[in-house]
Amino acid sequence: MPEPHLHRRLDQPRSSRWSVSFDPEAFGRLTERLARFLGTGRYLLLQTLIVIVWITLNLVAVGLQWDPYPFILLNLAFSTQAAYAAPLILLAQNRQDDRDRVSLEEDRARAAQTKADTEYLARELAALRLAVGEVATRDYLRSELDKLREDLNTKPRRVKGSP
């Protein structure tokens, strides 16, 4: 019976010989910068100049024709660029969606807290209105005192000792 390898465990996946580690956040920032650059006028101008120089050199300079008329190499370069640009743009959009989702969750939590605070203050205000309604106001006390004064002034006064 063959003996199992001492360093190999069958209950765990094999470890890769080629271990490449990278910071996903740094890679994400790089893709966002590239995607942002691909959408600028500077990039379009630069690419247009490169294409004009490429076509001019291949049509005019007979000795430098590395890509003759149908410009297959140029087409391949554009295809390769598109193959890389599309995923980079999608990565940048996904990162923006994640940021938007976090911002939306924070806004919802803030709105819920604001609503709860507003409802609390409305209840407190209603309680204060009820409490103030039960308290005698200055005008009410004045009117009652005026009535008492009138009653005292209209009733005859009794003198002590008189029947």
Automatic annotation (TrEMBL):
Database matches in InterPro entries: DUF1003
Transmembrane spans: 43-66, 72-92
Keywords assigned: Membrane, Transmembrane, Transmembrane helix
Pfam families (alphabetical): DUF1003
Signal peptide: none
Protein name, UniProt field: DUF1003 domain-containing protein
